[in-house]
Every structure is written in C-alpha cells, then in structure tokens.
Write a structure and sequence with these properties.
This protein has nine helices and no strands. The radius of gyration is 17 Å and the shape is elongated. The N and C termini lie far apart (65 Å).
Length: 163
C-alpha cells in the first residue's frame, strides 16, 4: 500500500484532494489557481463558500492532529474560500488581479489577517484566508466602482468619484 492511500479522507479534503502534496513548493498558490479556474466557469454562490469553509475547519483541524503539526503548508483548502471570497460579486475580468491581490495579502498577512491565524485548530487555518479574501474583495470592489462605476459598493461611494 502506498503512502498516499494511508492518508485519511479528511487529509485529502484539507489538501484540496492532493494539490497540497504537489512538489511545487507553492501549495497555496496552486490551490488558489484551482479556485480561480472554477470561478472562470461558475459564479460560486455564498452557500458554497460557507460550506467549503466549514468543511475546511473540520478537515484541517483533524489533519493538524493527525500530523501533529500546526498549519502545515500542504493543508491548503483555506485558499479556496479565500479566493472565492476575493472574487465574489465581481466581473470575470477581476480573476487575475484578484488572484495576485489575494496571494499578496495571504503572504504579507497584514492586520487583521495576522491575528486570525492565532485562533485554535482549523479555525486559525481557515480564518486568516477568509479575512484575507474579504479584504481583497473590498479593495477590488472599490477599484471596480472607481474604474467602471459598477459593483455593489458603487452606490455607496458614487458621490466621491468624479465622473
């Protein structure tokens, strides 16, 4: 039996069905890119983002215990809802800028992202990327409003934008 078959199912979920084990050295980037590919074809609904987040909390918490490690890099399901939140309610043209902005925020971990990863277990693994995705989305929503006079945030700030 190979080593891969010995991994419990929850580890496969937490590693985005093995993407976290690809020897790229960048499992978060690979999983973020996979989430972007899904977003090209599907406008991911909020219920799916919430479902993946909840499944991620469960699977990463168990996986941390299985490996006896705090937030190992191959547990990368957190990138999926983070990326989907980044792109939520934005036009498809924002997928590439959203990918780079989300990855930048995920790597730099500005406040409040850095405080979220201190939460225990799967909550800490998932929460920093969820908050990073929300931050990225808000930045991109402002950009969408400024450049294209569109998006949910535009009516809130249209008086501030010179037409």
């Amino acid at each position: 039996m190979t080593e891969e078959k010995k991994k419990p199912f929850y580890v496969w979920i937490a590693s985005v069905f093995g993407l976290g084990f690809i020897p790229s050295g960048m499992p978060g980037t690979v999983s973020s890119a996979a989430a972007c590919v899904v977003s090209i074809f599907v406008d991911v609904p909020m219920w799916a983002i919430l479902a993946v987040t909840i499944i991620g909390v469960w699977s990463t918490g168990l996986s941390e215990n299985f490996y006896g490690m705090k937030d190992p890099s191959f547990l990368n399901i957190d990138e999926v809802p983070g990326m989907w939140l980044t792109l939520y309610l934005l036009p498809k043209g924002f997928i590439i800028p959203g990918f780079f902005l989300f990855r930048l925020i995920d790597i730099l971990k500005p406040f409040p992202v850095c405080t979220m990863e201190k939460l225990p277990g799967g909550w800490g693994i998932m929460a920093d990327d969820v908050v990073g995705g929300i931050m990225s989305n808000i930045i991109l929503q402002f950009l969408n409003a400024y450049l294209y006079h569109a998006g949910w945030i535009y009516p809130l700030i249209e008086g501030l934008i010179a037409k």
